Amino acid sequence: MTSIADHTVTRSKSSFKLSMLLNDTRYRSFTFQFIALIAIIAFMAFVGGNLVRNLAEAGLNISFQFLKDPAGYDINQKLIEYNSQMSHGRAALVGLLNTLIVAFLACITATVFGVVAGVLRLSNNWLVSKIMSFYVEIFRNVPVLIWILIIFSVMINALPAPRDFRGDEASASMVLFDTIAITNRGVFVPSPEFTNSLSVAEQDVAEDGSIVPAKGWQDFALIFGVLFLSWIAAKLIGSWATRTQEATGSRPTTWYILLAVWVVPLVAVLAFLGLTWDVPALKGFNFQGGLQLRGSLIALWFALAIYTGAFIAENVRAGILAISKGQTEAAAALGLRPRRIMGLVILPQALRVIIPPLISQYLNITKNSSLAIAVGYMDVTGTLGGITLLQTGRAIETILLLMLFYLTVSLLISALMNVFNNRMKLTER
Amino acid sequence: MTDTHISFVRHEEIPPSPPPVAERGVLKWMRENLFSNWFSAILTLVALYIIAKFLIGVFPWFYNGVWDAGSIRECRDILEGRFGACFAVLVDRWDHLLFGFKYPQSEYWRPVLGFVLLVLAAMPALFYMYIPTKFLIGTALYPFLAYWLLWGGTLWLPIAVLAAIIATAFVFRFVEAMSVQMRTILAGLVGVAGAIGLAYLLYLGAQELWFISDSVGSAGGFAAIAGYLFKAASIFTYIFAIPMGIFVGYAIFQSAEDGGLVTVATALLAIYLMLAYAIGPVSEFLNGLIPIELQAVPSRDMGGYMLCMMLGTVCVSLSVPLGIVLALGRQSKMPLIKGVCVVFIEFVRGVPLITLLFVANVMLAYFFPPGSGLDLFLRVVIMITMFSAAYIAEVIRGGLAALPKGQYEAADSLGLNYTQATRLIILPQALKISIPGIVNVAVGLFKDTTLVSVISMFDIVGMIRGPIQQSTDWISIYWEVYLFAAVCFFIVCYGISQYSQWLERQLATDHR
User: Fold this and answer.
1) Residues of A with CB below 8 A from B334's CB?
2) How, if at all, do strands B153-154 and A186-189 pair?
3) Which long-range contacts (CB under 8 A, 24 or more apart) does A258-266 make?
4) Does residue A324 sit at the B interface (CB-CB below 8 Å)?
């Protein structure tokens, strides 16, 4: 009886044959991996050798020094200070921020579009749900590049030029109490300025004695800091209310305290900074002042939002449909009103289904924002992968940096998604 | 008093009275579906208003549309200030939109025929439940025919390649059916050839690595470290070149008894020899004998919607097998293979397609031997295939994960090895689950083929943005042409996604 076991043991110990590397499952995986390793090294040798030869032939080398050289080109939409004398690295940074801006704006807008369309598509109203399916199918089945180009062409060709705003019988006029000008050169919106700006040591004084307002990152940092403190205070008040509710059984009314916590400090800091609005006005051939959102930015933003919104609508619809009807019925049997059923029972469960695909849609927006290059919006693909590449001819370095940037962003978003999924798992029983 | 007991008993049933007006017909439907409550009523009215606005705005544009004009100015003259579309651009530039501006005009029948055949060839695969399996032979033959139709040249070249593939299959069968003695002799020969070949390849690789380390290491800094790494890899490869060769040769020889490896190795050797040495001369010879030729069209002359179709079809069909391999690799228990697959998939999924197209455009040529001159179409196909393979791999991984563990265990308990279990048990089920996902990736990929216009290829968007909008005749026309492109894509993508939903319903029935 024992002989079989003994036999196996002695055999595996005593005689190692070369054939066991192939036939014995214990060793076979090592063999395969070793072969794979050799294959990878051989591939690297092939690719790397060709690369070195080709570079030598073209008289090139791999170096990132060009990032410090002056860029020599202008960027028309910028968040931080930049001019053509600054370096390629700075230009890439401007582009990078532009990518993040358009992705951020498009994510928010797409979510709004998507949630509205997804919910309305499930509505009892036949007409509205049909319109929404129409929207979803039309936008999902046409390439986003075509949408971007259509919207951009409309911005350029169909909107009034700044000169149409001139004169007494102007063919175009500004909207929203003469503060926003929608032109074919972009949309001009008022931008905030401060008479007590922190960004300058001493405010300039105009010839007529009035103070010239200014703005800088310090002002916005202060405002965000105050908002952050308000947020913490609101959280504390919320937890205090919960504790009181648990102790006494009734929740204290906090909405007016919360309102005060949010509004009072904000108003105070805005008053301290002396907020004024720089309203765009027609001067010369174009509008001056305010914030100019270029047509390319608007087209990209709107096209990405409306295209991705169609996908998000499908996710939202699927998420709501995934919650079984029994949940609604059980909640109704408990006596909850329809609105509370939605808010307390359906949505919290549906969100668990909706949010992971939603986050991957955000990822898609970020990646698709690289289509900016088709309309000339200077995002990171347009600066680093576009003009910098053309000017310096450093294809390998710029494309590697570009990929690295997108890879970082998408890995960060994936990490976010994993954190979310794990948190959701913990709440499951 | 007479008995006037009047009793009335109705003998027949009275017909039911009709429901109230508001509870029947159109009114009931409207009440339920359009005006069920005040909020819904507001929504309906708003929707009606928007639809009316839209129709009033768009209808004259279509109605006044001009179909016959030579340029945008002529078009405006005909319109005389009325609001209307200028569809004449579609008539005027129809060929450009569909085939690009360089494809020889006399040869347009070829892509058209290719497209018709594509639809026919796809049928047996798409509707496999209705069409007998033998029609799949047509699907398998299609790529060779399509290559000949689109690129032209001699028909004998694709036929020779096909013949080589069939011959390889025969070699495979032949070796499998050999007696063990015969196969031992063959295994000895192939083993020696494989050993020498592999050792030589590795020797070349080691030399190459040394060369890289020399040129990298001289730069200093980080590059010096990389140089040392390459030196180490080179020495490693030098050491293992001969042992690896001997080992693989021995493995081939050793498999003579049961046939696995030697059969594969012989088939690989056979197809390599045929493709490298036999195809060219044979097809040339046959063409000299019986010339069947079409005018050759280089890939840079392809354009328009045809280019999108070509890229979409080629890349999807190539990326499915690659995606399966990557998905299986990612499921593997071997850390190195798993790691390589994970890194590849996550890297490709993490970057936008446009950066990969930049790679195809300006960077990929650096990785091939100097003067190999891959054309842009091929480079783009390589990159898009890699891109969609990563996404398809993720879809298939989902399918693999959705299989119950019992299936794997059952396969193991039947004594199937990895290849058998994967081929017979795992993949058929996993692929069936992943078909809708794969179709979604295919639709996305087809839409993404428009991005090639960014790297100055003239697909339909590239044609519009380049030769059409830049021409003096049709300067800055946009609605008509973009709408046309959108409709082209909508028809195909909507069709495919409807098919995918239909297929999903078909596949779902047998699980209930």
Assistant:
1) 29, 32-33, 36
2) unpaired
3) A258/A234, A261/A230, A261/A233, A261/A234, A261/A237, A262/A230, A262/A234, A265/A226, A265/A229, A265/A230, A266/A223, A266/A226, A266/A227, A266/A230
4) no
B418 token code pair: 């990895």
DSSP A160: P
Q: B1 touching A, CB under 8 A?
A: no
CB pairs under 8 A between A and B: 210
Find out whether A254 and A154 touch, Cβ atoms under 8 Å: no
**B353 in A contact zone (CB under 8 Å):** yes
3-state class (DSSP) for residue B265: helix
Residue B323 to residue A345: CA distance in whole angstroms: 40
Indicate if A320 and A367 belong to the same structural domain. yes
Residues 51-80 of A with CB under 8 A from B: 51-57, 61-62
Residues A84 and A50 in one domain: no
B146-B147-B150-B156 Cα dihedral, nearest 10 degrees: -110
The verdict on ipTM greater than 0.85 is: yes
CB-CB neighbors (< 8 A) of B349 in chain A: 410
Domains and CATH numbers, chain B: 1-61 (no CATH), 154-294 (no CATH), 300-512 (1.10.3720.10)
Domains of chain A: total: 3
- Using a CB-CB cut-off of 8 Å, the residues of chain B touching A370 are 352, 354-355
Contact A399 B36 (CB under 8 A): no
> Are A329 and A428 in a shared domain?
yes
Per the confidence metrics, is the pTM higher than 0.80?
A: yes
What whole-number distance in Å separates Cα of residue A110 and Cα of residue A310? 8
With respect to residue A368, please indicate whether it lies within any of the assigned structural domains: yes
Query: Which pairing describes strands A286-288 and A181-183: parallel, antiparallel, or unpaired?
Result: unpaired
Distance CA B497, CA A141 (A): 9
Q: Is residue B337 classed exposed, middle or buried when 0-12, 13-18 and 19+ CB atoms within 10 A define those classes?
A: buried
Q: In terms of domains, do A267 and A317 share one?
A: no
Q: Which two tokens stand for residue A97?
A: 């921020």
The domain in which residue A233 lies consists of 198-274
Q: Find the CB nearest B350 among A18, A157, A406.
A: A406
Q: What is the pLDDT along chain A (429 residues), one digit of tens a residue?
A: 444 444 444 444 456 666 677 667 777 788 888 888 888 888 888 888 888 888 888 877 777 888 888 888 888 777 777 887 888 888 889 899 999 999 999 999 999 999 999 988 888 889 999 999 999 999 999 999 999 999 999 888 888 887 777 766 677 777 767 778 888 878 888 888 887 777 776 666 777 767 777 777 788 888 899 999 999 999 999 899 889 988 888 888 888 888 888 899 889 888 888 787 878 777 777 777 777 888 889 999 999 999 999 999 999 999 988 888 899 899 999 999 887 888 888 888 888 888 888 988 999 999 999 999 888 888 888 888 888 888 888 888 899 999 999 999 998 988 888 888 777 765 554
Name the amino acid, one letter, at A202. Answer: E
